[in-house]
Each structure stands twice: as C-alpha cells, then as structure tokens.
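Thread: quick sanity check before group meeting

JM: Hey all, I'm pulling together slides for Thursday and realized we never actually wrote out the predicted structure for the chain we discussed last week. Dropping the sequence here so it's in one place. If anyone has concerns about the input, flag it before I start.
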Amino acid sequence: MSFSYHRTVHFQDTDAAGVVYFANILSICHEAYEESLRTSGINLKDFFTHPQVAFPIVHASVDFLRPIFCGDKLLVSLMPQKVGAEKFEINYEIALSEVVVAKAITRHVCIEANTRNKQPLPTNIVHWLERNRREIEESERRKAREVIA
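JM (edit): ok, ran it. Output follows.
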C-alpha cells in the first residue's frame, strides 16, 4: 500500500441502522487523499482555495464488504495512479483489524479552473503520483521477499 490514514468512525458517519452511511465512506476516503497530499508537501490551502487548476471527481464507486460501525478504527490505504495526461485515479482499501471492509475508487480529471477545459496534470501532482508509484512498487518487492524468505 502506498499511503495509510488512520480514522475512527464517528457517530455522525453512521445512519439509522448504526452503520457507516454509504456516502460517508467517500468522505473518509477524501480525508485520506487530502492527508496524502499534505504529507507530500502540497499546501492544501493553496490547492483547494482559488486554484488555477482543479481536480473534480468524474467517477466514484464503493464496494462494501462488511458493515462498519461507530467506534471502529479504520486504516485507509490509498494507491493513486496516473491514467492519462490529465487524469488520475485513486484506489482505496478500508480495513478494520487487517480485514478489508470496503474498497473505493475515485477518478479525477485536471481542468483549468476558469475555463473548465482539461489540462495536463501539473508538476506537483505528477510528483505525488510518481512518489506513490515508487512506494507501492517498493512495498510489493518487500512483500515478495518476505514470501520467499
């Protein structure tokens, strides 16, 4: 996994049945995305406030594998990857005690904020994607060595 984010499920995240409301899992994933950007050195205020480019989500999906309850301690792992000159996708795994309880995907497209026209990904996002790609590859190599040993 590339980047991990710890999150406790709050009462406000749940619905009347006491489980995480379906849309709130995407909100939790977005928190992990923001933290990943922040830890890579991207200034979130500059990134989200009056930017020259924006990265709207053009596709999102979630698969729930087990119920998630208030008080659960989640580990959200995200794996972003470039899927075109102006697009990237983030795959998320949400785990509880090392059991994957949900998976999600968000696909983002880079646009010029004023014209809303597609733009190539800026350098800071390309670096963020590359850094995460290298970390994923390194993690996979470590796992392979552990299996062999």
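AS: nice. The two ends are 20 Å apart (CA to CA). The CA atoms of residues 28 and 48 lie 17 Å apart.
JM: adding both to the slides.
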